[in-house]
User: Fold this.
Amino acid sequence: MLSSGSSSVGLQERWIGLRNRLLSSARFQRFATRFPLTRPVARRRARALFDLVAGFTYSQILAACVETGLLDVLAEEPADLAAIADRIALPITGTERLLRAAAALGLVQPLGARWALGAGGAALRGNRGVAEMIVHHRLLYADLADPVALLRRGGGGGALSGLWHYAEAAGTGDAAAVGAYSALMAASQPLIAAQVMDAYPFHRHERLLDVGGGEGAFLMAVAARVPRLALGLFDLPAVVDRARGRFDSAGLAARTTVFAGDFLQDPLPSGFDLVSLVRVLHDHDDDHASALLYAIYEALPRGGTILIAEPMAGARGAEPMGDAYFGFYLWAMGSGRPRTREGIVTMLHAAGFSRPQLLNTAMPLTCSIIVASK
Assistant:
Protein backbone atom coordinates (compact mmCIF):
# COMPACT_ATOMS: atom_id res chain seq x y z
CA MET A 1 0.00 0.00 0.00
CA LEU A 2 1.37 3.38 -0.99
CA SER A 3 1.60 6.12 1.60
CA SER A 4 -0.06 9.47 0.90
CA GLY A 5 3.41 10.92 0.27
CA SER A 6 4.25 8.25 -2.31
CA SER A 7 0.85 8.72 -3.94
CA SER A 8 1.44 12.46 -4.19
CA VAL A 9 4.86 11.92 -5.78
CA GLY A 10 3.35 9.46 -8.24
CA LEU A 11 0.69 11.96 -9.30
CA GLN A 12 3.31 14.64 -9.68
CA GLU A 13 5.45 12.37 -11.86
CA ARG A 14 2.49 11.58 -14.10
CA TRP A 15 1.63 15.26 -14.40
CA ILE A 16 5.22 16.17 -15.25
CA GLY A 17 5.31 13.43 -17.87
CA LEU A 18 2.08 14.67 -19.47
CA ARG A 19 3.23 18.27 -19.38
CA ASN A 20 6.59 17.47 -20.97
CA ARG A 21 5.01 15.40 -23.73
CA LEU A 22 2.71 18.29 -24.57
CA LEU A 23 5.40 20.98 -24.48
CA SER A 24 7.75 18.95 -26.66
CA SER A 25 5.05 18.20 -29.23
CA ALA A 26 5.40 20.26 -32.42
CA ARG A 27 1.64 19.95 -32.94
CA PHE A 28 0.85 21.34 -29.49
CA GLN A 29 3.40 24.16 -29.97
CA ARG A 30 1.68 25.22 -33.20
CA PHE A 31 -1.71 25.10 -31.47
CA ALA A 32 -0.44 27.16 -28.51
CA THR A 33 0.94 29.90 -30.73
CA ARG A 34 -2.35 30.21 -32.64
CA PHE A 35 -4.99 29.82 -29.93
CA PRO A 36 -5.77 33.29 -28.46
CA LEU A 37 -5.78 32.17 -24.81
CA THR A 38 -2.45 30.32 -24.97
CA ARG A 39 -0.66 32.61 -27.44
CA PRO A 40 0.63 35.12 -24.81
CA VAL A 41 1.97 32.28 -22.64
CA ALA A 42 3.61 30.61 -25.64
CA ARG A 43 5.30 33.84 -26.64
CA ARG A 44 6.61 34.47 -23.11
CA ARG A 45 7.99 30.96 -22.88
CA ALA A 46 9.58 31.24 -26.32
CA ARG A 47 11.21 34.53 -25.35
CA ALA A 48 12.51 33.04 -22.10
CA LEU A 49 13.92 30.02 -23.93
CA PHE A 50 15.57 32.21 -26.56
CA ASP A 51 17.10 34.38 -23.83
CA LEU A 52 18.69 31.23 -22.38
CA VAL A 53 20.13 30.40 -25.80
CA ALA A 54 21.32 33.94 -26.48
CA GLY A 55 22.38 34.86 -22.95
CA PHE A 56 26.11 34.61 -23.60
CA THR A 57 25.82 36.95 -26.59
CA TYR A 58 23.88 39.45 -24.48
CA SER A 59 26.53 39.36 -21.76
CA GLN A 60 29.28 39.97 -24.31
CA ILE A 61 27.43 42.97 -25.72
CA LEU A 62 27.24 44.29 -22.17
CA ALA A 63 30.95 43.64 -21.70
CA ALA A 64 31.74 45.56 -24.90
CA CYS A 65 29.69 48.53 -23.67
CA VAL A 66 31.63 48.61 -20.41
CA GLU A 67 35.10 47.91 -21.79
CA THR A 68 34.86 50.51 -24.58
CA GLY A 69 33.50 53.13 -22.19
CA LEU A 70 30.38 53.57 -24.35
CA LEU A 71 28.04 54.05 -21.39
CA ASP A 72 30.34 56.65 -19.83
CA VAL A 73 30.54 58.56 -23.10
CA LEU A 74 26.77 58.72 -23.46
CA ALA A 75 26.35 59.63 -19.79
CA GLU A 76 28.12 62.91 -20.55
CA GLU A 77 25.66 63.87 -23.31
CA PRO A 78 23.95 62.37 -26.37
CA ALA A 79 26.24 62.12 -29.39
CA ASP A 80 26.13 61.16 -33.05
CA LEU A 81 27.60 57.99 -34.51
CA ALA A 82 30.86 59.53 -35.73
CA ALA A 83 31.58 61.23 -32.41
CA ILE A 84 30.87 58.05 -30.46
CA ALA A 85 33.08 55.95 -32.75
CA ASP A 86 35.94 58.40 -32.21
CA ARG A 87 35.52 58.36 -28.43
CA ILE A 88 35.36 54.57 -28.04
CA ALA A 89 38.03 53.83 -30.66
CA LEU A 90 35.93 51.56 -32.87
CA PRO A 91 35.25 51.81 -36.61
CA ILE A 92 31.95 53.39 -37.63
CA THR A 93 30.46 50.07 -38.68
CA GLY A 94 31.44 48.33 -35.44
CA THR A 95 30.15 51.24 -33.37
CA GLU A 96 26.79 51.19 -35.14
CA ARG A 97 26.45 47.44 -34.63
CA LEU A 98 27.24 47.80 -30.93
CA LEU A 99 24.82 50.72 -30.49
CA ARG A 100 21.95 48.85 -32.13
CA ALA A 101 22.62 45.75 -30.05
CA ALA A 102 22.87 47.79 -26.86
CA ALA A 103 19.62 49.56 -27.71
CA ALA A 104 17.87 46.20 -28.12
CA LEU A 105 18.98 45.39 -24.57
CA GLY A 106 17.84 48.75 -23.18
CA LEU A 107 21.35 49.98 -22.42
CA VAL A 108 21.27 52.89 -24.90
CA GLN A 109 18.53 54.49 -26.98
CA PRO A 110 18.34 56.35 -30.29
CA LEU A 111 17.55 60.06 -30.13
CA GLY A 112 16.97 61.25 -33.66
CA ALA A 113 20.37 61.24 -35.36
CA ARG A 114 22.10 60.86 -32.00
CA TRP A 115 22.34 58.21 -29.31
CA ALA A 116 21.61 58.63 -25.59
CA LEU A 117 22.15 56.53 -22.50
CA GLY A 118 19.22 54.16 -21.90
CA ALA A 119 17.47 53.34 -18.65
CA GLY A 120 19.39 50.06 -18.25
CA GLY A 121 22.71 51.77 -18.92
CA ALA A 122 21.94 54.51 -16.40
CA ALA A 123 21.07 51.95 -13.72
CA LEU A 124 24.27 50.06 -14.46
CA ARG A 125 26.42 53.16 -14.07
CA GLY A 126 24.84 53.75 -10.68
CA ASN A 127 26.63 50.72 -9.26
CA ARG A 128 30.35 50.62 -9.97
CA GLY A 129 30.61 47.13 -8.53
CA VAL A 130 28.42 45.70 -11.29
CA ALA A 131 30.69 47.14 -13.96
CA GLU A 132 33.70 45.67 -12.16
CA MET A 133 32.02 42.25 -12.14
CA ILE A 134 31.27 42.50 -15.86
CA VAL A 135 34.95 43.03 -16.64
CA HIS A 136 35.87 40.29 -14.15
CA HIS A 137 33.56 37.84 -15.92
CA ARG A 138 36.08 37.50 -18.72
CA LEU A 139 37.81 34.96 -16.45
CA LEU A 140 34.59 33.10 -15.69
CA TYR A 141 33.62 32.91 -19.35
CA ALA A 142 37.01 31.50 -20.22
CA ASP A 143 36.33 28.63 -17.82
CA LEU A 144 32.77 28.20 -19.12
CA ALA A 145 33.89 27.94 -22.75
CA ASP A 146 33.83 24.17 -22.14
CA PRO A 147 31.37 23.70 -19.25
CA VAL A 148 31.37 19.91 -19.51
CA ALA A 149 35.15 19.79 -19.11
CA LEU A 150 34.84 22.10 -16.10
CA LEU A 151 32.30 19.77 -14.50
CA ARG A 152 34.37 16.68 -15.23
CA ARG A 153 37.56 18.00 -13.67
CA GLY A 154 35.81 18.76 -10.39
CA GLY A 155 35.91 22.54 -10.54
CA GLY A 156 38.78 25.00 -10.35
CA GLY A 157 41.92 24.61 -12.36
CA GLY A 158 41.14 27.49 -14.70
CA ALA A 159 41.34 31.25 -15.08
CA LEU A 160 39.00 32.13 -12.20
CA SER A 161 40.64 29.87 -9.63
CA GLY A 162 43.97 31.49 -10.50
CA LEU A 163 42.58 34.82 -9.30
CA TRP A 164 41.29 33.43 -6.00
CA HIS A 165 43.80 30.70 -5.18
CA TYR A 166 45.46 32.51 -2.27
CA ALA A 167 42.42 32.24 -0.03
CA GLU A 168 42.58 28.44 0.03
CA ALA A 169 46.36 28.34 0.41
CA ALA A 170 46.63 28.50 4.18
CA GLY A 171 48.27 31.65 5.48
CA THR A 172 49.60 32.77 2.11
CA GLY A 173 49.01 35.63 -0.25
CA ASP A 174 51.24 38.54 -1.09
CA ALA A 175 50.15 41.95 -2.36
CA ALA A 176 50.27 40.86 -5.99
CA ALA A 177 48.20 37.73 -5.31
CA VAL A 178 45.43 39.39 -3.33
CA GLY A 179 45.13 42.70 -5.12
CA ALA A 180 42.75 41.92 -7.96
CA TYR A 181 40.20 39.92 -5.98
CA SER A 182 40.31 42.23 -2.95
CA ALA A 183 39.74 45.27 -5.16
CA LEU A 184 36.82 43.57 -6.89
CA MET A 185 35.13 42.70 -3.60
CA ALA A 186 35.69 46.23 -2.27
CA ALA A 187 34.13 47.77 -5.37
CA SER A 188 31.03 45.57 -5.18
CA GLN A 189 30.56 45.87 -1.40
CA PRO A 190 28.67 49.21 -1.00
CA LEU A 191 25.36 47.88 -2.37
CA ILE A 192 25.57 44.83 -0.07
CA ALA A 193 26.55 46.95 2.93
CA ALA A 194 23.58 49.27 2.46
CA GLN A 195 21.15 46.35 2.42
CA VAL A 196 22.68 44.79 5.53
CA MET A 197 22.63 48.04 7.49
CA ASP A 198 19.04 48.74 6.49
CA ALA A 199 18.00 45.29 7.71
CA TYR A 200 19.96 44.93 10.96
CA PRO A 201 20.29 47.34 13.98
CA PHE A 202 24.07 47.52 14.43
CA HIS A 203 23.65 50.20 17.09
CA ARG A 204 22.63 47.47 19.56
CA HIS A 205 26.23 46.28 19.69
CA GLU A 206 29.47 47.64 21.07
CA ARG A 207 32.14 45.83 19.03
CA LEU A 208 31.90 44.33 15.54
CA LEU A 209 34.43 41.91 14.02
CA ASP A 210 34.18 41.40 10.25
CA VAL A 211 35.80 38.05 9.41
CA GLY A 212 37.18 37.80 5.88
CA GLY A 213 36.53 41.53 5.63
CA GLY A 214 38.96 42.18 2.78
CA GLU A 215 39.94 45.80 2.32
CA GLY A 216 37.40 46.98 4.90
CA ALA A 217 34.72 48.36 2.58
CA PHE A 218 31.91 46.86 4.68
CA LEU A 219 33.33 48.16 7.95
CA MET A 220 33.81 51.62 6.47
CA ALA A 221 30.15 51.72 5.48
CA VAL A 222 29.07 50.59 8.96
CA ALA A 223 31.38 53.15 10.55
CA ALA A 224 29.63 55.95 8.70
CA ARG A 225 26.19 54.74 9.81
CA VAL A 226 27.02 53.77 13.44
CA PRO A 227 29.64 56.19 14.78
CA ARG A 228 30.04 54.66 18.28
CA LEU A 229 30.64 51.08 17.18
CA ALA A 230 34.19 49.77 17.68
CA LEU A 231 35.39 47.83 14.63
CA GLY A 232 37.69 44.88 13.98
CA LEU A 233 38.76 43.16 10.79
CA PHE A 234 40.27 39.68 10.37
CA ASP A 235 41.81 38.50 7.11
CA LEU A 236 45.04 37.26 5.56
CA PRO A 237 48.15 39.38 6.23
CA ALA A 238 48.46 40.80 2.72
CA VAL A 239 44.77 41.67 2.68
CA VAL A 240 44.74 43.48 6.01
CA ASP A 241 47.70 45.56 4.87
CA ARG A 242 45.42 46.95 2.17
CA ALA A 243 42.61 47.46 4.70
CA ARG A 244 44.90 49.30 7.09
CA GLY A 245 45.76 51.82 4.42
CA ARG A 246 42.08 52.44 3.61
CA PHE A 247 41.21 52.91 7.30
CA ASP A 248 44.06 55.38 7.73
CA SER A 249 42.98 57.39 4.69
CA ALA A 250 39.40 57.50 5.94
CA GLY A 251 40.40 58.65 9.42
CA LEU A 252 39.19 55.42 11.02
CA ALA A 253 42.48 54.14 12.42
CA ALA A 254 41.47 54.95 16.01
CA ARG A 255 38.19 53.01 15.71
CA THR A 256 39.50 49.90 13.99
CA THR A 257 41.69 46.99 15.03
CA VAL A 258 43.15 44.87 12.27
CA PHE A 259 43.98 41.19 12.86
CA ALA A 260 46.10 39.19 10.43
CA GLY A 261 45.65 35.45 10.20
CA ASP A 262 44.06 32.51 8.44
CA PHE A 263 40.59 31.78 9.78
CA LEU A 264 40.88 28.20 8.55
CA GLN A 265 43.76 27.61 10.99
CA ASP A 266 44.14 30.47 13.47
CA PRO A 267 41.81 31.27 16.40
CA LEU A 268 39.68 34.36 16.00
CA PRO A 269 40.08 37.32 18.37
CA SER A 270 37.62 37.55 21.25
CA GLY A 271 35.99 40.55 22.85
CA PHE A 272 33.48 41.28 20.06
CA ASP A 273 29.75 40.90 20.65
CA LEU A 274 28.92 40.79 16.92
CA VAL A 275 30.79 38.87 14.20
CA SER A 276 29.88 39.29 10.55
CA LEU A 277 30.51 37.09 7.52
CA VAL A 278 29.70 39.13 4.42
CA ARG A 279 29.90 37.04 1.24
CA VAL A 280 32.37 34.69 2.92
CA LEU A 281 30.58 31.47 3.90
CA HIS A 282 29.51 30.50 0.37
CA ASP A 283 33.13 30.81 -0.81
CA HIS A 284 34.06 27.71 1.21
CA ASP A 285 33.25 24.03 1.06
CA ASP A 286 31.24 22.48 3.89
CA ASP A 287 34.16 21.33 6.02
CA HIS A 288 35.85 24.75 6.00
CA ALA A 289 32.54 26.60 6.39
CA SER A 290 31.60 24.47 9.39
CA ALA A 291 35.02 24.96 10.98
CA LEU A 292 34.66 28.72 10.55
CA LEU A 293 31.27 28.74 12.26
CA TYR A 294 32.69 26.71 15.17
CA ALA A 295 35.58 29.19 15.46
CA ILE A 296 33.19 32.12 15.58
CA TYR A 297 31.10 30.39 18.23
CA GLU A 298 34.20 29.92 20.37
CA ALA A 299 35.26 33.56 19.95
CA LEU A 300 31.89 35.11 20.81
CA PRO A 301 30.78 35.78 24.39
CA ARG A 302 27.54 34.24 25.62
CA GLY A 303 24.72 36.30 24.13
CA GLY A 304 26.92 37.32 21.19
CA THR A 305 25.57 37.39 17.66
CA ILE A 306 26.72 36.08 14.29
CA LEU A 307 25.49 37.79 11.13
CA ILE A 308 25.76 36.03 7.76
CA ALA A 309 25.04 38.08 4.64
CA GLU A 310 25.36 36.63 1.16
CA PRO A 311 23.27 35.51 -1.84
CA MET A 312 21.43 32.34 -0.86
CA ALA A 313 20.13 29.56 -3.05
CA GLY A 314 16.38 29.28 -3.37
CA ALA A 315 15.71 32.96 -2.65
CA ARG A 316 12.17 33.59 -3.86
CA GLY A 317 12.17 35.53 -7.12
CA ALA A 318 15.93 35.09 -7.53
CA GLU A 319 16.24 31.34 -8.02
CA PRO A 320 18.63 31.45 -11.03
CA MET A 321 21.12 33.53 -9.04
CA GLY A 322 21.74 30.73 -6.54
CA ASP A 323 22.33 27.32 -8.04
CA ALA A 324 22.73 28.53 -11.64
CA TYR A 325 24.99 31.60 -11.45
CA PHE A 326 26.77 31.11 -8.14
CA GLY A 327 26.68 27.34 -8.49
CA PHE A 328 28.86 27.52 -11.57
CA TYR A 329 30.86 30.58 -10.47
CA LEU A 330 31.99 28.88 -7.27
CA TRP A 331 32.62 25.61 -9.11
CA ALA A 332 34.93 27.47 -11.50
CA MET A 333 36.55 29.20 -8.55
CA GLY A 334 37.33 25.79 -7.09
CA SER A 335 35.78 26.32 -3.66
CA GLY A 336 32.41 26.80 -2.05
CA ARG A 337 28.80 26.43 -3.09
CA PRO A 338 25.53 28.33 -2.76
CA ARG A 339 23.47 27.28 0.24
CA THR A 340 19.82 27.66 1.08
CA ARG A 341 18.85 29.48 4.22
CA GLU A 342 17.72 26.13 5.66
CA GLY A 343 21.15 24.67 4.97
CA ILE A 344 22.88 27.56 6.71
CA VAL A 345 20.55 27.30 9.69
CA THR A 346 21.40 23.60 10.02
CA MET A 347 25.11 24.45 10.03
CA LEU A 348 24.55 27.15 12.65
CA HIS A 349 22.72 24.74 14.94
CA ALA A 350 25.53 22.18 14.51
CA ALA A 351 28.07 24.83 15.58
CA GLY A 352 26.04 25.56 18.74
CA PHE A 353 24.15 28.71 17.74
CA SER A 354 20.50 29.22 18.64
CA ARG A 355 17.53 31.35 17.59
CA PRO A 356 18.51 31.80 13.93
CA GLN A 357 16.46 34.43 12.11
CA LEU A 358 16.18 35.32 8.43
CA LEU A 359 16.05 39.09 7.91
CA ASN A 360 14.36 40.59 4.88
CA THR A 361 16.50 42.67 2.53
CA ALA A 362 15.51 45.02 -0.25
CA MET A 363 17.12 42.82 -2.89
CA PRO A 364 17.46 39.09 -2.09
CA LEU A 365 18.99 38.68 -5.55
CA THR A 366 22.26 40.01 -4.16
CA CYS A 367 21.97 39.49 -0.42
CA SER A 368 20.00 37.60 2.22
CA ILE A 369 20.76 37.78 5.95
CA ILE A 370 20.69 35.26 8.77
CA VAL A 371 21.51 36.14 12.38
CA ALA A 372 21.88 33.75 15.32
CA SER A 373 22.97 33.89 18.93
CA LYS A 374 25.37 32.07 21.23
User: Anything to note?
Assistant: The chain has two domains: 14-125, 150-373. The domain at 150-373 is CATH 3.40.50.150 (Rossmann fold).
